[in-house]
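Example record

Each entry pairs one chain with its bound ligand, D-mannose.
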Amino acid sequence: MQNSFRWYGPNDPVSLSDIRQTNAEYIVTSLHQIPYGEKWKKDEVKKRINFINKYNSSNNINLKWNVVESIPVHNNIKLRNHNYKKLISNYKDTIANIAKNNIRTICYNFMPIVDWTRTQLDFKLPTEGLALRFNYLQVIIFERFVLQLRDLEKRYSSREIKNAEILYKKMKPRDLNNMKFSIMGGLPASETKYSIREFKKMLEAYKNVKNIDLKENLRDFIREIIPIAEENGVKMAIHPDDPPIPLFGVPRIVSTLKDYKYILNSYDSESNGMTFCAGSLASNINNNVYKIFNKFKNKINFIHLRNVKVEKDKKSFYESNHLNGDVDFVKLIKMIVKEEKRRSAFKKIDIPMRPDHGHCLLDDQNKNTFNPGYTAIGRLMGLSELRGIIKAVQN
Ligand code: DNO
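C-alpha cells for the complex follow.
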C-alpha cells in the first residue's frame, strides 16, 4: 500500500513537513482553488508539483503526489442540464492535463448538492477526543425546521418525525447552528457554503430526478470520461456516497454493492474503478464491506481507511477510532494485502491508501484553523495504527 496523507494545498494548516513527519510518503491533493467545472490547465498542475518539489528540496523530504482527490463533478453534469456538455469537455481536458504531469489516479464522486455530510463536527468521545458525527434525527430536524420542507412524510416514518421534534426541543441554539454549519458547507470538499435559499434552490433542481435518472446520468458521464482516462493511462476511482443513503429526498446512487455493479459494468475498463472507502460504506448497516471488497477487488484503485460506530437507531453513526469501530481492520487489511500480492504477479503498483479522517486530539483542539476530520494528530494516530496492522499482516 502506498501510505498517503491528504493535503489541502499551500493554505492547509497541516504542512508538507507535518505530513512527512507522520512517515507518509505520498500526498493526495487537489487544486481546490479552481471553481467546480473549470478546466485545470497542465501548467497549473505543474505549478503545484513544483511547489511540492521545492518544499521537498528545501526541507530535505521527498513527498510525491500520487492521487488527485478530487476533480469535483459539477451539479449540472449530475443533472445533465444547462452547460453540462461544456463541463464534461472541461472534465476530459482536466483528466488529460493531470496525466501529462504523470499523476495517474483520480478520485471523484457523484453526490448531489453536498459532498460528504455530517451533522456535528465536535462530538465528544469518552477519551475527550472530538469526532465527526452523523445524527439521522438531526437531518430530519434540518429538513423540517431549517429548510421547512413540507414533504417529510414521504421519506420518514411518523415515529422518526416525532422523535426528531422531541430532540429539536432539547437542542440549544449553539447545537442548532453547528448542525446547520456542518450540513450546509462546513466540511472541506464542499463546493460552497450554501445559504438556506440556495440550498432550497438546489433541492428544487433535483426535485424530479429519480434514482434511475441519476444513475443514467452517471453512466453517460462514465461513458464519456473513461475512454479519455484509458487513453491517458489514468485510473478513475469513484468514491461512495457518504453516508450511503438518500438525503433530503434526493437520491444517492453510489451507495451499495448493486450500485457499484451498475457503475462498473457501465464501461468495462481498468480505468473505471472505485475508491474503497471503508467508513463510508460501513455507515449503512446493509452494506457488507468485506463482500464489496471481494466482489470488486480488481477494480479498487484507491483506498480510504477509516472506521465508524453505527448507533442504536442503526442510521446514525460517529467516526470511531480506526481500530475500535464496526469494521474489523485486521480482517480487511489481510484482504487488501492478499489482493496486492495477486497484483504483484502482473507487476502492478501498490494501491494508494490514506487514513481517512482522524479525531481532533491534543494541541489540535486549540487550533482555530483546521479542516474538520483532517487534523494532523488524529490522522497520524490512525495511520500509525493501520501501519502496525499492515506490517504484522505482511510478515
Ligand atoms: C471526506 C472525503 C470526501 C471525498 C470526496 C471524494 O473526507 O472522503 O471529501 O474526498 O467525496 O470525491
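The first strand starts at residue 2 and ends at 6.
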